[in-house]
Amino acid sequence: LDLGCGTAEISIRFKKKGYSVLGVDISDEMLAIAGEKIESAGVEIPLAVHDMRNFKLPVGFDIVVSLFDTVNYLNSTKELEKCMKSVYSHFDKEGIFIFDVVTEEMMDEMFPGGTFVDDREELTLIWSREHDEENGLEEIATTFFVKEKNGKYRRVDDYYTKKIFSEDEIKNAAEKAGFKKIEFRYDNSLA
């Protein structure tokens, strides 16, 4: 299960390696893009609209992945606990839940001075970030300038929040859901 699959980048990679994959996301728009990418890749991957905090699927899984810091889009430890319980309830027997999260240190590294700019030939991306210390939330505003076929640029703005979870919050949520073996690995090189 690719939970929070977005545009199905990881789903497609798994499918091409021979795995059976189901992509789940809360966004119809992301799943529409995913469908186009899946068709272009020449693979078949079922997609479904579900909320990672509370999903019920008619099948079980051996492995659930949730990558690209999707778990950070949960805005409280209560939401994290719900997600963990939903994941755990979908394992056939024993299963593995692999996910990544950003940390405060990673956010500071990515947004020195609160802003990150990525200027490419076809795209310019500007991220600005403010930290809400009281709630442990990162408030992020993004502006994309996307070059169209006619040479003009289209502006796309987005705003979202991410929760920075502590190791203890993650461990407690996982244990409450029933997970027995919990491991943490640190690798900022993938961010």
Short structural summary:
The chain is an alpha/beta fold. It has helices at 9-16, 28-41, 77-88, 104-110, 167-177, and strands at 2-3, 23-25, 47-49, 61-66, 91-99, 115-119, 123-132, 137-147, 153-163.
Overall description:
By secondary structure, the chain is an alpha/beta fold. It contains five helices and nine strands, in the order βαβαββαβαββββα. β4 (61-66), α3 and β5 (91-99) form a beta-alpha-beta unit. α3 (77-88) crosses α5 (167-177). The radius of gyration is 18 Å and the shape is globular. It starts with a strand and ends in a 14-residue tail after the last helix.
The average pLDDT is 94
Instruction: Sum up the overall morphology in one term.
Output: globular
Tell me the Rg in angstroms.
18 Å
Find the structural class using helix and strand composition: alpha/beta
Helix content: 25-40%
What's the total number of strands? Answer: 9
Q: β content, as a range? A: 25-35%
Largest sheet: 4 strands, antiparallel
Numbering strands along the chain, what is their spatial order in the largest sheet? 6-7-8-9
Order of helices and strands: EHEHEEHEHEEEEH
DSSP helical segment count: 5
In whole angstroms, the N-to-C terminal distance is 22 Å
List keywords for this structure.
single chain; about 190 residues; alpha/beta; 3-stranded parallel β-sheet; about 30% strand; globular
Topology:
Blueprint: E1 2-3, H1 9-16, E2 23-25, H2 28-41, E3 47-49, E4 61-66, H3 77-88, E5 91-99, H4 104-110, E6 115-119, E7 123-132, E8 137-147, E9 153-163, H5 167-177
Helix pairs in contact: 3-5
